[in-house]
Write a structure and sequence with these properties.
A hairpin with a 2-residue loop joins β1 (about 5-10) and β2. The chain has four domains: about 5-25 and about 115-275, NADH-ubiquinone oxidoreductase 51kDa subunit (Rossmann fold), CATH 3.40.50.11540; about 35-110, OB fold (Dihydrolipoamide Acetyltransferase, E2P), CATH 2.40.50; about 280-350, Roll (Ubiquitin-like (UB roll)), CATH 3.10.20; about 370-430, no CATH class. α2 packs across α5. The relative contact order is 0.15. About 30% of the residues lie in helices and about 20% in strands. The protein has helices spanning about 20-25, 125-135, 145-150, 170-180, 180-195, 215-220, 235-245, 265-275, 305-310, 370-375, 380-390, 395-400, 410-415, 420-430; strands at about 5-10, 10-15, 30, 35-40, 50, 60, 65, 75, 80-90, 95-110, 160-165, 200-205, 225, 260-265, 285-290, 295-300, 320-325, 330-335, 345-350. The chain has a six-stranded mixed β-sheet with strand order 3-16-15-19-17-18, with helices on one face. It is built from 14 helices and 19 strands. The two termini are about 35 Å apart. The longest helix has 15 residues, at about 180-195. One iron/sulfur cluster (SF4) binds near residues 379 and 407.
Length: about 425
Amino acid sequence: MMTPQHFKEKGRFSIDISMKLDAINKPFQEVPPPDEAVVFLRQHVGLVNQPLVKKGESVEAGQKVGDAKGDFAVPVHSPVTGTVKTMRQVFNPISREKEQALVITTEDTDLPSKEYSVGLDELNRERIIEKVRESGIVGLGGAAFPTHIKLSAKNIDHLIINAKESDPNLACDVRLMLDRPESIVDGIKLMARALDTRDIVVATRTEKGELGNFEELLRENNIRMVWIHPSYSVGSERLLVKEVLNREVPSGRYPPDVGVVVHNVATAYAVARAVLHGEPLISRSLTFYSEKTGGRNLWLRMGTPAGHVMNYLEISPEDVERVIFGSIMMGNSIPDWSVPTSKYTSGITVFTPAEPDPYRRTLPCIRCGYCNTVCPVDIYPQLIMEADKKGDRERLRRLHVEDCINCGLCSYVCPSTIRLTGYLQSGKRRIE
Ligand code: SF4
Ligand code: SF4
């Protein structure tokens, strides 16, 4: 358990990154699509999509199968060519509730060939934003916020590309910068054109020279790269804006309110593939870690059940105590292996029976204050927990529960192994 002498300063928390280091040098492995893809109708922050297909209908890979009217909606597309077998309620690790998903039986895994290629210079702001929305692009850093909404912001003077990947178990963004730098730079240029800003900063924790060709391409395109402290949680948008531009995003406000838009490096890649090559968002990168396989960078279709990934990597149920989807600091465990990946899934981490859940046995709060000390946004997790237990919405508002960035540090340091993030999330829902 961490103690205060490990806290360097707020937002500068050093954390074990051995899982990340284990994966960083591994090129992407493409996981074959599953026999049945399970596609959540909502894979973004916002409105729930309505299905556009019925049971028994044939669909092509990349075909739009769910959408909704309204700004806060992003369509979903079929990840495979096949037949809609059914629509059913499936556990979603993001909401921790059952949500509607289409089950599609795979008949062909190739994308239909399309003669689609458009030059960067042929595109204006409106076409880029429309194409990004229609391609189902969301923030791939784990938040799944609709990208077209961020790109529609006005009066933006800076675009920050978050290439920091501060999560201790993830390496897929670094791998993407090493393996596919040209498309990322194209995506950054498209984003800058949509936002009408020339001031672009790529923020990274990697040392100068480690990203090879990517750094060269940034220089050629006059894109600035800044090195930021390799601590956990500075990857959060609000903290990144402060770190890179020394601008405060006030409580309850967002980076565009201070003239800045932040996008993840993998989102830039998805934007380029969608806008320049007509590829909707049906697959993504993620980092997998288990004791047996070590760290791996995988490329897989959305809607791939966890069990399919386990079979592919030859992991047996008896080797597994629990599985976490997403970052190990911010992600959620899944109840069984039928749960599918989605646009949110940036990582999968497998823990063995020798690594039991530390939060299984919780002790009373001893008011040590560690959780308050470590919180990077200066709120009081322990007081919020008490307010949430009482259902005191007024106090939750006064304690600014909405400012929580869900970094997980308070739970991580708590000597009583209290899962404080659960109370933070519940508190946020209470005041919505
Ligand atoms: S309260 Fe929120 S932001 Fe603060 S440490 Fe906990 S999870 Fe992180
Ligand atoms: S919740 Fe945990 S870390 Fe926070 S004051 Fe109580 S015992 Fe300490």
